[in-house]
Write a structure and sequence with these properties.
The structure is a single chain. By secondary structure, the protein is an alpha+beta fold. It has 2 domains: 4-225, P-loop containing nucleotide triphosphate hydrolases (Rossmann fold); 237-342, OB fold (Dihydrolipoamide Acetyltransferase, E2P). Helix content is 24%, strand content 35%. The protein is built from 8 helices and 19 strands. Strands 6-7-8-3-9-10 form a 6-stranded mixed sheet, with helices on both faces. A hairpin with a 2-residue loop joins strand 4 and strand 5. Helix 2 crosses helix 3 (107-120) and helix 2 (92-102) packs parallel to helix 4. The longest helix is centred in the middle third of the chain and has 18 residues, at 166-183. It is globular, with a radius of gyration of 24 Å. The relative contact order is 0.11.
Length: 354
Amino acid sequence: MAEIELRSVVKKYGALTVVHDFNLKIEDGEFVVFLGPSGCGKSTTLRMIAGLEDISGGTVRIGNRDVTHLEPKDRNIAMVFQNYALYPHKTIYENMAFGLRLAKLPKQEIEKRVAEAAKMLDLQELLGRKPKQLSGGQMQRVALGRALVRNPDVFLLDEPLSNLDAKLRVRMREEIAALHQRIGTSMIYVTHDQVEAMTMADRIVIMKGGVVQQVGAPLRVYDKPANVFVASFIGSPEMNLFEGRVGGSDAVVQEMRIPLGRNPRLTDGVEITVGFRPEHVQVGEGDLKFTVNLVEQLGVQTLCSGTCNGLFMRIMIERRDDLKKGDVLSFAIPEGKLHLFDKSTGSRIDQADK
């Protein structure tokens, strides 16, 4: 096991910079998720850590070693890819043992490691089968097992669940999180799925355009997004965001006024972006009026799309079986649940403590 540190890491393809000044320290045993849309640089950063991409600038350290210019085989990392990359003509045992044989480990040690990994991942009954005889979830467990037997300092996982159906993704998500708890090895996990990030990570690194937007624990990022991009990317359904201005003790968005309370950090007339999460509205309170356009029943909760003063928004409430298009609900937004951002920079405006 080892900590990982990236210092001012840059990746360029000619004149194009795809990762900008990436700085991050990952503690020994930490589970960190790189999250962002396609093309944000998260997989490229992972591949630089693995040694599969050359680094244009900066350094990568694993443990007490500078591995910036080391070959992948010399970094003691194990990588799990989106496609399972199993040898179709080999048995599951042979797939898991292949790397150990290349490393010329003794046969007894290979058998021991494969047996331990197979037990941990519930693969004992599958070791004699070929990959084509397995389900997608079983093949992904084999890919994890092949990495696990190497006893690496670091696990790198590049969107490993993307090829699985929704139900199987949830189960595999639980299995990977449980595996991390058992072995305690540092893991870096790349995904564009914010639910995966929120449920698995000790910390999330959110990226956009090759630039780190925010690093933090899942609930910290959810509660205090650093900018408008993070606010819109984290949370499902996404945050309601509107352009407005400070008007006395209110946030004014067109004809809608949302109380801010007295706050010395907010200057009257300043242009801002106002945000609130659909699940944080208080229905039945306040003077704001929401007209229902669409009702989505989610079981324990009801998601409504509609308008308030002509502004489209979504609200999430406790289950309501009686709602229909055209119904009007009064609602309020608690002061502590309102997010404010500088309109020109998109950065969060920290509000005074109440």
